[in-house]
Amino acid sequence: MEFLEANQADPLTYLLIFYVFCVAAAVFLPIPVEIALVANPGIHIGVKAVVMGLGKGTGALAVFFFGRKIDETVGRYAHKWRWYQWLLRKSDVLIRKYGYVAMYAIMSIPGMVDTIPLYIFSILNKEGELMKVHWFVVVNILAGITRAILIFSLFELFEVELFG
C-alpha cells in the first residue's frame, strides 16, 4: 500500500501498480483490495473500477489453471479437516445449482478475500465441466467492477469523505 500511495502523482504508474495488486490479491494475497480503491483522488472512480475488474479477471484466469493443478493436494487436506470437507461440499452444491451467478454474487461482496473462493471454484470445476474459462474470467471482471461500484456507493450513501 505504501508503494501504491508513493506513486499517486503519476496516474499510469498508479493504475499499473493497482492492477498488479488486484492480480496478486486474486492469486495469492489473502487481503481485499478495496483499500487501494479509495486512494488517489486524481483518478476517476470508473477507471479504477475497470482496472480492478481487469486485475481480478487476470488473476481469475491464473487461478482457473492453478486450482486444477493443486486439486490432488487439496484432496489430501479435505480428508483431514472436517470443516474443509464441509466447505467443499457446500460450495459444490452452490456451484452446481447456481453456477456463474453464485460466483458473481460471492466475488462481488465488498471486503471478500478473493483467493479462497476462486481456488474453491477452480478446484470444483474439474476438467471444465461446470464452468468455461472465458466465462470464469468475464464473471470475475464484472464482479470486480461491481464490487468497486458497491464500495463507492456505500461511501456515498453514508456520506463518508473519501479524499479529505
Q: Identify the quaternary structure here.
A: single chain
Please count the beta strands (DSSP E, at least 2 residues each).
Answer: 0
Q: Could you state the order of secondary-structure elements as H and E?
A: HHHHHHHHH
The largest β sheet comes out as:
none
Estimate the global geometry from the Cα principal axes.
elongated
Helix content: over 70%
Structural class: mainly alpha
**Alpha-carbon distance between the two ends:** 18 Å
Radius of gyration, whole Å: 17 Å
**Uncertain spans, ≥5 residues at pLDDT below 50?**
none
Mean of the pLDDT scores?
85
Tell me the fraction of residues in β-strands, as a range.
under 5%
What is the number of independent domains? 1
Number of helical segments?
A: 9
Tell me what the structure shows.
The chain is an all-alpha fold. It contains 9 helices and no strands. The longest helix is centred in the middle third of the chain and has 25 residues, at 45-69. The protein is elongated and about 50 Å long.
Compact description:
This protein has 164 residues and is mainly alpha-helical.
Write the layout of secondary structure elements.
Blueprint: H1 2-6, H2 11-27, H3 34-37, H4 45-69, H5 71-80, H6 82-98, H7 100-107, H8 115-124, H9 133-157
List keywords for this structure.
164 residues; mainly alpha; 0% strand; elongated
